Amino acid sequence: MAKRFLLVTEEWAGSGHRMAAEALQEVLLENEGTRSARVVGGLKTASPGLCVLSHFFYRNMLRYGQPVWQRIYEQEEMLGRALTKALGWWLSARLTNQLLQEEKPDVVIATHAYCLSALAEAKKRVSKSFQLVCVPTDFHINRFWVHPEIDAYMVAHEQIAQILMERYRIAPKKIHVHGIPVRPAFTTALHTDKATWKKQLGLVPDQFTVLIGGGEGGYGGVEQVVRELILEEQPLQVIVVTGKNASLYRRLADLLRTKSNDHRFILKGFEPQMWQWIGAADAYITKPGGISCAESLALKTPLILFHPLPGQEKHNCSFLLEQQAAILAETTVEIKEIIRSWRQPEKRGAFAGDLDKLGRPDAVYQIAQTLLQLTD
Predict the structure, then answer these.
(1) What is the pTM of this model?
(2) Secondary structure of the chain as H, E, C letters
(3) Which residues form the Glycosyl transferase family 28 C-terminal domain (predicted)?
């Protein structure tokens, strides 16, 4: 019998969570075992006012209070219990009445933890039962993702599975190690080599190419990195993606208009087809958002991490460094030095070879297959 899937995500805390949900939606809708697959914003549906407030708080914490945000995040045990009881109970009634009773899903998938406890509570309220699945989009997990009502955990790595079993006593049969789901276009893009991508994008095929991004919000010290690379003596081909940060785009446009050297800079705002640029790049400079890193690993593009945001990104950074799947640059000068080293194909090739163990370009297909096989 074909299943009804409901993918619950959040967009106010970064676009990666929604991209993971949409990647799964795309693959599920291609399968005859799917009757429907809808993506919704959990908090936006349950409480639009609280959604606006949460976005405002999150954005300003990242702008003005990153150390405070890190300390809040580190209180995960205390906050996790509080959210599970208080916020979960309050939001569950709203989700039940405004979403679940109408959709009557067979499987509910959460790609963000905010409404996960509410969905778990809602399982007890709805007239039609459903399977509840969580899909964390980072290389780390905390208490916000854990609840007795969750039926399956789709995680990025064996280390996360160990944490779930040892720290949170989750039964092994509930845990599936598939990787972080990236859009199917990344799976296809893997079959095109870098020289071909460069040619298709109008780039010089044999010139060292650097991609700079800071996520949808344009964080990650993008302007600092650009200013430093302008000073590099050997010519570079540099693509800068500013996301939806319009003020950053304008500042960089003014800066690059006045530069006078042999570098070639391409400035882009929001870029929906990132697989082309990641596929073409010889190095990707970014903050360590889970989806950005998973996309780069899927295409075996070496990562230089810079300015990780507090919370999950700090943990992502630690994990990737431990796995020798990325390099952390503390300064823009270090970035320049890494790029100089990677201009030597043998050094860059040796580093890129280590990415195979973490890159999971087919994660979205494996997760979708597991979702289709879930039974009540």
Answers:
(1) 0.89
(2) CCEEEEEEECCCCCCHHHHHHHHHHHHHHCCCCEEEEEEEEHHHHHCHHHHHHHHHHHHHHHHHCHHHHHHHHHCHHHHHHHHHHHHHHHHHHHHHHHHHHHHCCCEEEECCCCCHHHHHHHCCCCCCCCEEEECCCCCCCCHHHCCCCCCEEEECCHHHHHHHHHCCCCCHHHEEECCCCCCHHHHHHCCCCHHHHHHHCCCCCCCCEEEEECCCCCCCCHHHHHHHHHCCCCCCEEEEECCCCHHHHHHHHHHHHCCCCCCEEEEECCCCCHHHHHHHCCEEEECCCHHHHHHHHHCCCCEEECCCCCCHHHHHHHHHHHCCCCEECCCHHHHHHHHHHHCCHHHHHHHHHHHHHCCCCCHHHHHHHHHHHCCC
(3) 229-339
